[in-house]
Amino acid sequence: MNIRLVASICCTLLGGGCERGEAPAQTWEIAVQGLYAAAISTDATQIISGSMHHGTSVWRMPEFERIYDWRHADGQDLTLVAAAFSPDGSRAVTCDARTLVVWDTTDGTPLQFWGMPGAARDVAIAPNGHEVLLGLTDHSALLFDAADGGHRRTFLHDAPVNSVAVSGDGRFALTGADDHAARLWSIESGELLHRLEHSSPVVVVAMSPDGRLLFSAATNAEVRLWDATSGAATLTLSDRDNGITQARFSPDGEFLLIGTVGGRIEQLSTTSGERLRRWQIEGSAADRRGGSAILALAVAANGRMSAVSGDGQLISLN
């Protein structure tokens, strides 16, 4: 989710919101004045940062090396709206207001440029590395093949689509919108499988890697886990902080990380909802316009957990 949308989310704290969390293990500065948007690869070795003043860059870890500077047009820094990596990290996609580019991360070269039919709010890449799912302000989520530009599916909502996700096997799409609902779709048939109701706009969705669990969060601090087969809510966590900006499941689906507009990150059990750990990201500079909103999260197979905050920090949580 990009920082413009994050800024529109109310950040009133509910329940235990006043508790302070532990400090992260290590931080690095990847932007001096803050970020519009960011993404972290599944193995946490690559990071896309959309800086407010220096365009979009790609960083490699653990070397902490900036390896690419990406632009959508010669001589023009990219104002990043959304970004994502393919599950294997070999491809990445970046969106500005009206243009989408697919990149080869092995050498940093652009593979395809596409004009979008509407303004993007979120983007995801299917496991095959070339199907791209866009959440658009025109009330739709568009799935297309970036290799040939072919249209695959249009998934309709009744309001702008804020967040999108694709299952680990590429069979399902999850979308969340301002119409107070998340929707689970079959990519093969285009069928709506489940409508997951909330009482306010849905701003974040996520799917476990095996596709069994769905996550959705609304602007009124309504946070839910759902069974993907039945569409039934398995956990409702309405006492969490308002202003959730990101969510990522662990590779085994046993826990997930959620990040908030206020720089708080929680590790939650997906079976009990128990808070396992909690971190508080302190802003690196009071005048940075990105604030400490969490823009990206990752849980690698080796258990390492990472985040990027709006004030330009790359964060190792453990």
Main pleated-sheet profile: 4 strands, antiparallel
Helix tally equals 1
Would you tell me the structural class of the helices and strands? mainly beta
CATH top level class name: Mainly Beta
Q: How much is the average pLDDT? A: 89
> What letter string, H or E per element, gives the SSE order?
HEEEEEEEEEEEEEEEEEEEEEEEEEEEE
**CA-based gyration radius:** 18 Å
Helical residues, percent: under 10%
Which architecture does the CATH hierarchy give at level 2? 7 Propeller
User: What best-fitting shape do the alpha-carbon axes yield?
Assistant: globular
Number of domains: 1
Fourth-tier CATH superfamily name: YVTN repeat-like/Quinoprotein amine dehydrogenase
> Largest beta sheet: what is the strand line-up?
1-28-27-26
**What fold name goes in the CATH topology slot?**
Methylamine Dehydrogenase, Chain H
Question: Can you give a write-up of this model?
Answer:
By secondary structure, the protein is mainly beta. It has a single domain (3-316), classed as Methylamine Dehydrogenase, Chain H, CATH 2.130.10. It contains one helix and 28 strands. It has one helix at 3-7; strands spanning 26-29, 35-40, 46-51, 56-60, 65-70, 82-85, 91-95, 99-104, 109-115, 120-125, 131-136, 140-145, 151-156, 161-166, 172-177, 181-186, 192-197, 202-207, 213-218, 223-227, 233-236, 244-249, 255-260, 264-269, 275-280, 294-299, 305-309, 313-316. β10 (120-125) and β11 (131-136) form a beta hairpin. The radius of gyration is 18 Å and the shape is globular. The two termini are 23 Å apart. The model is unreliable at 2-18 (pLDDT under 50).
